[in-house]
């Protein structure tokens, strides 16, 4: 991976920062958040502005360019990658380390007095704008909304915004019609005396309408906005997409069942003016719900007295708790996914000794095997296929210039997942195809202990996921080890592989309590820089637990693994496991053998079945 | 415990709420926070306004009275107690339960449109004012600062504000002179470009000046304010107290060593006008530090552009990390405290079968035995001495009308502590003097497992205490049990038994990371309403740990118990303990025997020594 040469680009950007075409007075700093006008985590090529200006293409990062400096904030997953992708013009700001200043503090320390800091108000979320605005103001600077994006101004061949075909999902996949979802939403609105709701998150809009798209790689979403009132539904989308008869039929555009379920369609770009018109006609008591993470631009259209910002919208909460149909779909998707992975691992075991398998070819093989499964749509994120030292680059993605050959001498980590029409998967396994070192086994075993501690945890109803994070770390901590990322994230159902409002992380306190039906990942790790990486990830479903007692009738919850792929016993130092932990491994492997074995048999994949049976033998 | 009859009082208060003597327009609700003008947790009798109006005397609670309603918010420790102390005029709002509305939500739900809600701005903290102000404004109501306290208006025989003698502490107790503390504070101020610092918390002022008082029972503090500039120190206190030559000498009032260490003294009440004068003379860049938990009244004196609110002051942080002298003092205090408790338990064992020991006489005996120890000053909080069902009232305090006799048939819980000149103690033991039931033993053992999980935890430097809270609950959760309070609080050194900024609780996320030298309690529990209560509390010191590895050179921490009182083996179901947990118990008991045994021997307390030796036998 060689860094992007950014000297000339930065020169042009700094020129634009002084160019009065864009604003009345020059700005002294320009903030380039990652994300798009919907605050998406994964973004379309036309929105990859932070990558374009810096070269760093990880999923999280914020660049700030001043007249003298260019700095990039990112988290522990990306320290190595960002370091490798950016040239000397850039300073890496390692978030989460004590010595790293916040963006605000850094700006205040480097800016001349009374500086102006610019940002595109469509890209920055309202809550981030607010914090940045406050911090800069208190230090005598000002934050300025720059309507023309300055990166676009120096990006001559910027790609077009995609507009892919919409896919309608029936009740057999969604469990609830979009009409019923609208009705539930309106009930919540009237309960809270809310008259309008503005949806800006792409996955929420896709979930609401039971529609999927392919505008953003890996995320089956499409560019749109929606504004729901008590009697109207306004849908903002590239209108060309609605010429498709199936989509028209699904949305009942030509023959709505009831007037209040009639959808009015508008061009994507007209959301701003339409929201302005709605706000101009608000009654004195009217309240508008908008997520506090929505864009600053759209949020500020709503007059403050009418604005009711919420950390999580009812759609986000509704989407997080999967219904029975979605759970069944997720289970099916994970069985298919396990079939593909068992085949992959059986194949790797055979092929690696020949020296012909690379990180890229292994990832390609995984995709090929997944694509043979029913209702496969695509991958759910770029496959992390990493050998030896690459495993320590937490979100490594193999490129031709970094591509390493799998051998019997190094640890192999593969973190991959797929979109199936019935569900989304995300699984990480760490394997050794020769003989792992004692240290590798020791670290693997601590990570496994952490994985089990979360997976087997029983906790009261109402517990927030962040309270479980330390369980995943206790065994590592006891040996002085740790990992610099959260333990789990929400997972969508044929939607984004990362979704809120639940998760398991020491970093989040605003998460919503875990509820039966929520689905999260459980993925502790350990990374030895320059040597190897270990991560063990299952997607798990929150289910009721029935412990001996029931304190104050609160009820208890636990997790049921949806991922059913064997965990390599060769990597375990079983002496470090307690009897309870060994029992957990044996029970997990029994279930893998039973459920995935039956499917392998049905699909006639004999070699993978033999591999599965061998890899799920009892440990003692 | 019979409830206070409050009908007439509430009638008078509601009349005052309509009385234009106090404001231009009547108010529809009046908030009565607990606490005083320093936001103290424990308060002097003259400040017990919430207790006066409601009867509920727990350490935490907020009352709100409207024209129709009177409601009291308190947390799980006090649900039973508040229920028993308040009459039918009051509604108990159980904080922490899902169905309980916040104060703001409740007000909004019960108030008529455009209501005015009053509060004494000296008693409400600035951050609470801000939240309440926002919430009420957004619902069309307003929050009004009522300068005359309306409770005082209906409280004819309200006690005087105390003004006890000041006690000066030398370097042998404090380790650092007040002059050096001022110098360190000023260095932090100039590092952050702060020109003034306003100290309002009584324990911070006591710590800063190495002075103690006795204005508030259990807390060795005195009513005062301090404003520190780069060259001046202004000390606001009842000036009569400074006629004492020892105090004058200690503060160098008559012969300051350097001009910038010269203390100007002012009457306690003049802090408001003096701060106004300071603020009137501020330069355009001058910044004033004040804790965001300081009173709204004093905070709002500082113009917003000059105000720099901080969650924890440098004094709070400095006080939390104990120096070597303070640690040595805390260790000595805990050894003396353990001597007293070993004697108490040996005595109880002998006396209980005679049927003459009650909750009150046991508490008195504990105090008597503590008072025999060197440098004893008083108790550090009201002793919780509770038998059987009273143990489930988390902060129960025996009263003549509730006083229960200790028997060999019920669990006994005693949570007690003392102030010694060298340190503060806080210890809880749960004992059975006959044969505990299997269920009592089971619960005790889960609590013990939680206590050990925290005490023995190894965690990276920089970890916040709230990340350890779940360790204390895991064993209880696994059986469907839990407790509705935090796991630990900071402990002062001959100061308040509860202090910030560290602690171990699921409820706090703004806590500061744990550091070597900090001292917290570790006190999980289990409470079976109407039957028994279990809590096991040690005060523990944060110390460096040396695990096998040292990830990213961060270093690790763990806890060293300062409390050295045996944990009753009779209450344990040792089969539920792992070998590691049994080892911890044995090592803890070995240390109790060694350290406290030597002191018991030195003091010639033979019976207690025999009891200690018997109670610290190995478990297997």
UniProtKB/TrEMBL annotation, chains A, B:
Pfam families, per database record: Creatinase_N, Creatinase_N_2, Peptidase_M24, Peptidase_M24_C
Protein name: Xaa-Pro aminopeptidase 1
Keyword presence, Manganese: yes
Every Peptidase M24 C-terminal domain range: 557-618
Main localization, broad class: cytoplasm
Keyword Cytoplasm among record annotations: yes
EC class (word): hydrolase
Needed co-factor(s): Mn(2+)
Domain of life: Eukaryota
EC number: 3.4.11.9
Catalytic reactions of this protein: Release of any N-terminal amino acid, including proline, that is linked to proline, even from a dipeptide or tripeptide
Cell compartments where the protein resides: Cytoplasm
Gene Ontology BP annotations: proteolysis
Function: Metalloaminopeptidase that catalyzes the removal of a penultimate prolyl residue from the N-termini of peptides, such as Arg-Pro-Pro. Contributes to the degradation of bradykinin.
Domain Creatinase N-terminal positions: 27-147
Entry GO CC: cytoplasm
Subunit structure, interactors included: Homodimer.
Organism expressing this protein natively: Neolamprologus brichardi (Fairy cichlid)
Family: Belongs to the peptidase M24B family.
Peptidase M24 domain sequence ranges: 329-542
InterPro entries: Creatin/AminoP/Spt16_N, Creatinase/aminopeptidase-like, Creatinase_N, Pept_M24, Pept_M24B, Peptidase_M24_C, X-Pro_aminopeptidase_P
Transmembrane segments: none
GO molecular function terms listed in the Swiss-Prot or TrEMBL record: metal ion binding; metalloaminopeptidase activity
């Amino acid at each position: 991976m060689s860094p992007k040469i950014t000297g000339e680009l930065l020169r042009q950007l700094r020129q634009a920062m002084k160019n009065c075409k864009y604003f009345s007075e020059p700005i002294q700093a320009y903030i380039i958040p990652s994300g798009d006008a919907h605050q998406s985590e994964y973004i379309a090529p036309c929105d990859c502005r932070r990558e374009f200006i810096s070269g760093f293409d990880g999923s999280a990062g914020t660049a700030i360019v001043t007249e003298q400096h260019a700095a990039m904030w990112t988290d522990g997953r990306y320290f190595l990658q960002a370091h490798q992708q950016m040239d000397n013009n850039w300073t890496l700001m390692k978030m989460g380390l004590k010595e790293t200043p916040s963006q605000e503090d850094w700006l205040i320390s480097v800016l001349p007095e009374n500086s102006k800091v610019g940002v595109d108000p469509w890209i920055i979320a309202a809550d981030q704008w607010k914090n940045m605005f406050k911090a800069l103001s208190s230090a005598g600077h000002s934050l300025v909304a720059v309507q023309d994006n300055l990166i676009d101004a120096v990006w001559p061949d910027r790609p077009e915004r995609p507009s892919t075909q919409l896919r309608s999902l029936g009740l057999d996949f969604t469990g609830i019609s979009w009409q019923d979802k609208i009705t539930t939403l309106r009930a919540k609105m009237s309960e809270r005396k809310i008259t309008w709701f503005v949806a800006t998150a792409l996955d929420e809009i896709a979930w609401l309408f039971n529609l999927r798209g392919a505008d953003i790689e890996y995320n089956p979403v499409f560019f749109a906005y929606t504004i729901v009132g008590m009697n109207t539904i306004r849908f903002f989308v590239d209108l060309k997409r609605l010429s498709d008869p199936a989509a028209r039929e699904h949305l009942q555009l030509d023959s709505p069942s009831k007037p209040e379920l009639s959808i009015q369609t508008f061009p994507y770009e007209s959301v701003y003016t339409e929201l302005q018109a709605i706000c101009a006609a608000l009654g004195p008591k009217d309240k508008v719900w908008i997520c506090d993470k929505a864009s600053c631009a759209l949020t500020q259209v709503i007059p403050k007295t009418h604005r009711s910002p919420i950390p999580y919208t009812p759609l986000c909460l509704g989407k997080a708790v999967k219904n029975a149909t979605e759970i069944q779909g997720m289970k099916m998707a994970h069985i298919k996914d396990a079939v593909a992975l068992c085949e992959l691992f059986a194949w790797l075991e055979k092929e690696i000794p020949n020296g012909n398998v690379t990180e890229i070819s292994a990832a390609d093989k995984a995709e090929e095997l997944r694509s043979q499964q029913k209702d496969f749509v695509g991958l759910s994120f770029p496959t992390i296929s990493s050998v030896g030292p690459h495993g320590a680059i937490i979100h490594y993605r193999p490129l031709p210039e970094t591509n390493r050959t799998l051998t019997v001498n190094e640890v192999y980590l593969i973190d991959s997942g797929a979109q199936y029409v019935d569900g989304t998967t995300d699984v990480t396994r760490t394997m050794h195809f020769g003989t792992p070192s004692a240290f590798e086994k020791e670290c693997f075993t601590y990570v496994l202990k952490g994985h089990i501690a979360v997976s087997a945890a029983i906790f009261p109803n109402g517990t927030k996921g962040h309270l479980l994070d330390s369980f995943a770390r206790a065994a590592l901590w006891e040996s002085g080890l740790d990992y610099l990322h959260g333990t789990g994230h929400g997972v969508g159902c044929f939607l984004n592989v990362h979704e809120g409002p639940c998760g398991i992380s020491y970093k989040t306190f605003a998460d919503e309590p875990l509820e039966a039906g929520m689905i999260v990942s459980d993925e502790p790790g350990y990374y030895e820089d320059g040597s190897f990486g270990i991560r063990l990830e299952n997607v798990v479903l929150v289910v009721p637990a029935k412990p001996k007692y029931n304190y104050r009738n609160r009820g208890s919850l636990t997790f049921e693994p949806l991922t059913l792929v064997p965990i390599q016993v060769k990597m375990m130092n079983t002496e470090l496991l307690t009897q309870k932990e060994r029992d957990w491994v044996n029970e997990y492997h029994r279930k893998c053998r039973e459920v995935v074995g039956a499917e392998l048999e049905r699909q006639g994949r004999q070699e993978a079945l033999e591999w599965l049976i061998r890899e799920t033998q009892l440990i003692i």
